[in-house]
Specification:
about 500 residues; alpha/beta; two-stranded antiparallel ribbon; TIM Barrel
C-alpha cells in the first residue's frame, strides 16, 4: 500500500504532502485569532475534506461552534494552551491523526478485509511504581519491556495503515519517559496519549512536552483523596494534584483517566468531582468501568446496575453543561457501534509483545516480535472479532466479556488463542465466572434504557440512521453479515 506520509494521492485529489500543507495552513489560520476565525474554519475544512470523512463529527463540531455553549468554551480552553506546543498538537491530532488518516484506514479495511485500528495501545514496560487494587499490571513486576526499536517499528507499520494515534498503558509508561519523548521527536505526525499515575511528571518533563508538542498525559484519579488513595496508595492524591498544578502552570494539555468501581462510583459521579477536574486544568475525562481481569481480581468491585445507570445519566448530563470532554467507555457503545476492540478502532500490545484484541482481553495468537502488525490483525482471534462485531444488538451491552460473558470463551476456543497474562494464566471460563452475574443484573437495565421511547436517541437506535457516525466499511460489513437489522434501510429521515 502507499505510504501514508508524503507520497501518493489522498482523498482531496492532491498529494499527501499538499493535503497536509493545506490543512496545516487552516490550523495556522485558526491559531492566529481563534475567537474571530473559528466561525469560518469548518466552512474551509468542508471545502477541502470529502464528505465521507467524519461527516457526523464535522456537523457536530459545526453545531458546537454555532451554539457558543459549554463545548465552545472547551474549544476556547484548548486555544489557551501553551502556544509553543499548541500548533504542533493540533496538527498531529486533527490533521495527521484524523482528517488525513481516516481515508487511509478505510482503504486498508476495504483492501485487506479486516479491522484496521484508529489507535494502538502499547505497554512500553510492565514496571510500575505503584500497586493499585484491582490492576493486573500491579502483579506483572519489572521484567517486561518493549524496546525503543520495538515501539518505533510498531508505529512505522501503523502509519502505513493510516494509524497515527498511539496510547501508552502499562505498567507506568513514564518509567520510560526519555524513550517516549524520543519517539515523539521521531514521529511528529503522530499524537501520543499516556495513561499515567502522574507521580513521575516533573519540570524537565513539562519542558519536553512543550518542545515535542504531541504528547498528552491522562492522569489516573478516582474521585476524592480518600477513594484515590484507597486504591492507589497513601499520598498518591497529593502527588497527582502537584503534577496537575505543574502542568497547568505551563498551560499544558492533560486529562483524567478514571477507573470507577463499586467502591468509588458514588464519589466519581458528582458535579463536585467534575468541577475539580476543570479547576485543575483537565480538558477531558475518560471513564473506565472496572474489569475483573487477572486471577487476583475480584468481582466484588464491579459496579452495581444502579451505579452504572447513574453513571450513564450523569455523564450525559455533564456533557450538556460542563467544558470538559467526557467519554464513558462502557456506556457510550452506541456512538461507535458497540465493541471497538480487535482492531476495529484499537488493539493492545503488551510489554512482552503479545498482540491482544483489547487491553482487558489477555488472549492472543501472535506476538509482534514474530509477525507484522498487518498479519496480527489477520490472526485467528482478531478475525473472530472482525466476523462477530457487534456482539449485541443493544450497544449498551457491547463487550464480549462483561455483558456477553458466553462470547469470550467461544472466541478464544474457536481461534485457539492462549492466555497472555504475564503472571498467572486465567482461562476465559474462569473470567466468565466473575462476570456472568453482573451481566445478568445489567441486562434488564440496559434493555430498558435502550428501548426507552422517551429517549432523544430512540429514533437513531431503532428507526432512522443507525450508523451513529460509524465507518462506511463498518456499515457495509454489518449489512453483508446481516447483523441486527443493518440489512434494512432506515425508515425515517435523518
Amino acid at each position: 500500500m502507499r505510504d501514508s506520509g508524503a507520497r501518493g494521492e489522498g482523498p482531496m485529489g492532491l498529494t499527501r504532502a499538499a493535503e497536509r500543507a493545506a490543512l496545516s495552513k487552516l490550523v495556522d489560520y485558526l491559531n492566529e485569532n481563534p475567537a474571530e476565525n473559528i466561525d469560518k474554519i469548518m466552512d474551509l475544512v468542508n471545502e477541502l475534506v470529502p464528505d465521507s470523512v467524519f461527516p457526523v463529527q464535522r456537523k457536530a463540531f459545526t453545531d458546537v461552534i454555532k451554539s457558543r455553549g459549554n463545548w465552545y468554551d472547551l474549544i476556547m480552553r484548548v486555544f489557551d494552551l501553551n502556544p509553543e506546543m499548541r500548533t504542533k498538537l493540533l496538527k498531529a491530532l486533527l490533521v495527521d491523526g484524523n482528517l488525513l488518516a481516516w481515508p487511509v484506514q478505510e482503504k486498508a479495511r476495504e483492501k485487506y478485509q479486516r479491522n484496521i485500528p484508529w489507535a494502538i495501545l502499547l505497554d512500553p514496560t510492565s514496571a510500575c511504581n505503584l500497586h493499585c487494587t484491582g490492576c493486573w499490571a500491579a502483579e506483572y513486576g519489572h521484567q517486561q519491556n518493549l524496546s525503543f526499536d520495538d515501539i518505533d517499528s510498531i508505529i512505522c507499520q501503523g502509519k502505513e495503515l493510516g494509524t497515527h494515534m498511539y496510547i501508552y498503558t502499562g505498567g507506568e509508561p513514564l518509567v520510560r519517559k526519555h524513550d517516549l519523548i524520543k519517539i515523539c521527536e521521531k514521529h511528529p505526525d503522530c499524537a501520543f496519549l499516556c495513561f499515567t499515575n502522574a507521580t513521575l511528571i516533573d519540570e524537565e518533563f513539562c519542558q519536553d512536552m512543550i518542545r515535542v508538542g504531541n504528547f498528552v498525559p491522562a492522569i489516573s484519579a478516582e474521585g476524592n483523596e480518600y477513594t484515590t488513595d484507597s486504591r492507589r496508595g497513601q499520598g498518591t492524591y497529593t502527588k497527582i494534584e502537584r503534577a496537575m498544578d505543574l502542568l497547568r502552570s505551563h498551560k499544558l494539555p492533560f486529562g483524567i483517566s478514571c477507573c470507577w468501581t463499586r467502591a468509588n462510583a458514588d464519589t466519581v459521579a458528582t458535579e463536585e468531582n467534575i468541577d475539580w477536574m476543570i479547576d485543575k486544568g483537565a480538558l477531558f475525562c475518560w471513564y473506565f468501568h472496572f474489569m475483573p481481569v487477572g486471577r487476583a481480581a475480584t468481582a466484588e468491585l464491579i459496579p452495581t446496575p444502579e451505579q452504572r445507570e447513574k453513571m450513564y445519566r450523569f455523564v450525559r448530563e455533564m456533557r450538556e453543561k460542563k467544558p470538559l470532554f467526557t467519554l464513558d467507555f462502557q456506556n457510550d457503545g452506541e456512538y461507535v457501534g458497540g465493541c471497538i476492540a480487535g482492531g476495529r478502532r484499537y488493539l493492545h500490545i503488551n510489554a512482552a509483545g503479545d498482540v491482544e484484541p483489547c487491553v482487558f482481553i489477555h488472549y492472543s495468537n501472535v506476538n509482534i516480535h514474530d509477525v507484522s502488525l498487518l498479519d496480527a490483525l489477520g490472526s485467528p482471534i482478531f478475525m473472530k472479532y472482525y466476523e462477530g462485531q457487534p456482539f449485541n444488538a443493544n450497544h449498551l451491552k457491547p463487550c464480549p466479556m462483561l455483558e456477553n460473558p458466553d462470547t469470550l470463551p467461544k472466541l478464544v476456543a474457536e481461534s485457539g488463542a492462549h492466555s497472555t497474562d504475564l503472571v498467572e494464566k486465567e482461562t476465559p471460563e474462569q473470567l466468565r465466572e466473575k462476570t456472568v452475574e453482573a451481566a445478568k443484573a445489567w441486562a434488564p437495565v440496559a434493555d430498558r434504557l435502550w428501548n426507552d421511547k422517551e429517549s432523544p436517541l430512540y429514533e437513531k437506535r431503532h428507526v432512522a440512521d443507525r450508523s451513529q457516525g460509524m465507518a462506511a466499511t463498518d456499515m457495509k460489513k454489518f449489512k453483508a453479515q446481516g447483523h441486527y437489522g443493518y440489512t434494512e434501510e432506515p425508515t425515517a429521515t435523518k
